[in-house]
Amino acid sequence: MPTPVSAALPKGLCAYNYVSLCGSPRWGIIVAVKSARDTYRYPGSFEMHRGGVLESPSVVYETWGELSAEADNAVMIFTGLSPSAHATSSPLDPAPGWWEEMVGPSRPIDTRRYYVICVNSLGSCFGSTGPASISPATGEPYRLGFPVLSLEDIATMGRHVLLDIGVKRLAGLVGPSMGGMTAQAYAAMYPGTYERILLMSTAPRAQPFSIALRSMQRELIQRDPDWNDGNYEPGKGPIQGMRMARKLGMMTYRSAAEWEQRFGRERIPAERKSGDGFAMDFEIESYLEAHANKFIGQFDANCYLYLSRASDLFDIAEHGGSIKAGLARIDAPRSMVIGVPTDLLFPVQQQREIAAALKLGSGEVEYVEIDSIHGHDSFLVDMDQFRPPIKAFFDK
Fold first, then answer.
1. Which entry of 49, 86, 319, 376 is annotated as an active-site residue?
2. How far apart are CA 63 and CA 85, in angstroms?
3. Could you give the C-alpha distances from 286 to 160, 176, 282, 283, 332, in angstroms and in order?
4. What share of the chain has pLDDT > 90, as a percent?
5. Which of 343, 372, 377, 378 is catalytic?
6. Domain boundary at 282, 307, 332, which?
7. pLDDT (tens digit, 9 = 90+) per residue, 99-122?
8. How far is it, in rounded angstroms, from Cα 132 to Cα 126?
9. What domain range is 19 assigned to?
10. Is 315 known to be catalytic?
11. Catalytic entry in 133, 177, 201, 335
12. Is 68 a catalytic residue?
């Protein structure tokens, strides 16, 4: 939250010295109105899952809908690696969210019925405590002094947010991608605290291909001279490394079939070419360039490294001795697992594995396989296919 520095202004206005979500300190005047974001601050020393301690860390979250008198209609959403807590729009923040077509009135996760909570991951740079945050011990950003981050830490902070709100048992627990692994960690650590769980395009552990890919992305960032062993100034850093890491990521978020359908061998118009024989020539190159340039102004490099590594480290087997035993701790009365055959990053075999293990329990389990051309990002873009099964799941 911003810190007020002056009250000598017209009523309703305050001056703030604030740090932009992933950037540098700035001065400004803002209208003193309620924010769409809420912040939970852990009281005291938070012990991390793999060692280390954070003093009074905080996480940002957003909510939509109304909590019932019995506090039994809450749905928690854990996000993928890069989204913020802004899953959908609201009167307090009308900007479209990253899951705008899935959450809201009359949408599959209906905010007229459910009280929806989306948490920005611990370790991220969209308001929650992470490597870009100021360490109370040094007065400087944590940078690489931040403890090793685990998805279990994100899940635990999510649990504290719920208890602070007054929710002891969730009506629904939802997680796509990395958020699906976080949801599994939550479910294994806090059995009996959720009515249903929805897992999409996720995995019980990272496979070698995914680990290798993220390792290459991290190396691209760390080999950028401006990374400077993580000691770059806020708002600066390894721009070229982040650009290359994002391009590599985008190549795995979609499918080769989609690239062929959307771009084929379409060329860039002559007026957009630089003249260099090795410069961008194809539209697919231009597409990746645009996404890379957009990303570098939004996300902190050290936060990216920590969250990426946390995804590699996750293994549900740590919660039971094997994948099956770990998944057996998930005791939701109703479960849904959704997979997409064109997903390169989280192959559909991993969603099948989760569903098969959950079916060994006593709850009702539904496995849905969606034939989408959009690869891993299908849960974000192929709403026509994802909405119906999710709506049916939450309407039961």
1. 376
2. 9
3. 43, 28, 7, 5, 45
4. 83
5. 343
6. 307
7. 999 999 999 999 999 999 999 999
8. 10
9. 1-33
10. no
11. 177
12. no
